[in-house]
Amino acid sequence: MAGKIKEIQAADFEKEVLAKDKVVVDFYSTECPPCEALAAKYESLSNIYGDDISFVKIFRQGNRDLAAQLDVSGSPTVLFYQNGERTGKTLTGGILRSELMEGLDAMLPADKAAELHGKIEPVVTNTDVVVLGGGPAGLTAGIYLAQAHLNTIVVDTALPGGYVATTHQVSNYPGFIEAQQGFMLSHFMSEQARENGVEFRSAVEVSKVDLNSKSLVVDGFETIEAKKIVIATGSRPRPLNIPGEKEFAGQGISYCATCDGKYFEDKEIVVIGGGNSSIEESLFLSKFAKKITIIHQFETLQANKVAQKKIFADEKVNIMFEHEPREFKKYGNMDMAVVVENLKTGEKSEIRTNGVFVFVGFIPNLEVFHDNLELDQWGYLETDETMETNIPGVFAAGDVRTKQYRQITTAVSDGTIAAITISKELT
């Protein structure tokens, strides 16, 4: 095993962890993308901190009893021990390098931690193409580019898969007879990219991007320089920021009617919003649901007149004007509630429902970019038909670019076009 790391079994735990001064433990599993994303960071930091802190790895699947005893239920899970006692935060899932360093630094005197930080040497990596974003658009671009024998690195601040990984099931993606769980479809895409030679920098922090020089800084120490860049950072639903939203996203709260509407056949649902997307998606949901309650903060809808006429004529639909959601609750499987406030009276009430759809807009993920990118009126990237932006050599694909429809298939199309264009220019 590379780095200053020791792999142990449950029988060694007392000797190698509890009896030592300072230890960090990584419970990992096989066929685990988050574990693979952590491995490189763990190895790198072991070479820096390994003389002061013992680095240990434990195969969770082969040491289930110990994992259960320590309440380790996911992989990877990183635990910190000092003088036989667990200390600091438990880290799990897409673990950032900075989170790991924070836990290690906490076990050392401040001056020692500062000294070790000084040993971190900057690294420069040269590649043909950097793809920023590991959703369907970015992964598709990566597959095409790698198959064209171009060195390609996919950089993602989360784990590969993008927004589709949070979708319960996907039944409209070509090639699959049975509906696929969103995270599995994402997994298939990322593994295909990896198999074709795409490199990944996953669950990383991107501190600087210079689109003109085609360079970016990852995790504060690695500078990646490329000939071309594909921006495939996607977009995210505009949050309501009320209690229950984060907890029940994907578990009763959905942001995609096309993805999840069919699971509410003959059910009652609540829709939040009154703009074009909300009303048009409600009309689609009406094909499945037996009752739809639309909650809208204003006294009139903001959707186009054609959509308004159709929604007012739909007998399944009831619109609560001048109301806002204040909290989401979950009582059981397909048993939700929305606490709403009447903006005129201030009175609050609870609406029981089988599910909730939120359509209050999306936000393109462009915060890391400070170059003069050309955007449309809604803040999405403008491109030409080859997916190139106004900055030469910088392309955009997927939900981050201006387009009429945002679906997995349209993201894959964008990634394909961008990659083929780049391949012809570089090969």
UniProtKB/TrEMBL annotation:
It comes from the Bacteria. InterPro entries: FAD/NAD-bd_sf, FAD/NAD-binding_dom, Ferredoxin-NADP_redctase_2, Pyr_nucl-diS_OxRdtase_2_AS, Thioredoxin-like_sf, Thioredoxin_domain. Keywords: Disulfide bond, FAD, Flavoprotein, Oxidoreductase, Redox-active center. Residues 1-109 form the Thioredoxin domain. GO terms for molecular function: oxidoreductase activity, acting on a sulfur group of donors, NAD(P) as acceptor. CDD domains: TRX_family. Pfam families: Pyr_redox_2, Thioredoxin. Belongs to the class-II pyridine nucleotide-disulfide oxidoreductase family. This is FAD-dependent oxidoreductase. It comes from Candidatus Thalassospirochaeta sargassi.
